[in-house]
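Changelog-linked ticket: zinc ion example.
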Amino acid sequence: MPKSSVPASSVTMITDQGQPEHGNLTGCPWHDVKSKLRDVGLRPTRQRMALGWILFAKGDRHVTAEMLYEEATRAKVPVSLATVYNTLHQFTEVGLLRQVAVDGSKAYFDTNNSEHHHFYVEDQNDLMDIPATDVVFGKPPMPPEGYEIARIDVVVRLRRKQG
Ligand SMILES: [Zn+2]
């Protein structure tokens, strides 16, 4: 039976152990990645499986293509930066990832595809989650004729207090 998401408990376990190892998995994230891909109609190719493993086995996080490429290289996954880009965009198209645009030059990909918002620490290029319930909208703008609001993403920009 395909599972729609990795159970939170297995994610925590892997995070606590540091680098996941292929040999001794109890929650079997490898199998979960395969199911994730199959569920959204993506063929579980070797590269998608390897990148999916690196992305999803560590719980909720935000990565750029460059960060994922670096992790893949360290994990000895033979993959080009272009393939990492393509794979991230494919995963986003099918809803496995959410893209968070913080500025024009950098796209972050979020493994948490549920509704939430973000703090962005400007001088550290760091994203932190804000629970959806912590942001209250007084009055969303009226969309133009023929459109409806698909979702509202809030990025709250932070900087260190001066002095
Ligand atoms: Zn997030």
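Closing comment: Example verified and attached. Residues 115-158 form one domain. The pocket of zinc ion is lined by residues 62, 110, 112, 116, 118, 129 (CB under 6 Å).
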